[in-house]
Amino acid sequence: MIIYSVTVKIDLSKHDEWLMWMKNVHIDEVIATGKFEKYKFHRILAEDESDGITYNVQYYAKTMADYFEYRDQFAPKLQRKGKDHFKDNFVAFRTLLKEVE
């Protein structure tokens, strides 16, 4: 299993709007690409959230080919939607993981 992990720190001023967008729009759009079987959405616990709240979404793909197809065919458009809507109110980083059995 390949895990595409996206960690986002969202500014407090946009937090509620962003969270609703993630739950009701963005994650569904990523899953609708057909390249991931499931996802897990987590809030990262931190003592100091004065400059934002951090979340992690893990999308699960069967193969590297599925991930690469997502990255090349779908990710730029979906990422642009978030950037256009939330501008400089978040930072994100992405990590690719392989499940160890």
Structural class: alpha+beta
Helix content: 25-40%
**Secondary structure: number of strands:** 4
The tally of structural domains comes to: 1
Low-confidence stretches: none
At CATH level 3, the topology is Alpha-Beta Plaits
Q: Work out the radius of gyration.
A: 14 Å
Annotation field: number of helices? 3
Along the chain, the helix and strand elements come as: EHEEHHE
Distance between the termini: 9 Å
CATH architecture: 2-Layer Sandwich
How many strands, which pairing sense, and closed or not: the largest β-sheet?
4 strands, antiparallel
Global geometry: globular
Mean pLDDT: 96
Strands ordered across the widest β-sheet: 2-3-1-4
Quickly name the level 1 CATH class. Answer: Alpha Beta
* Beta strand %: 25-35%
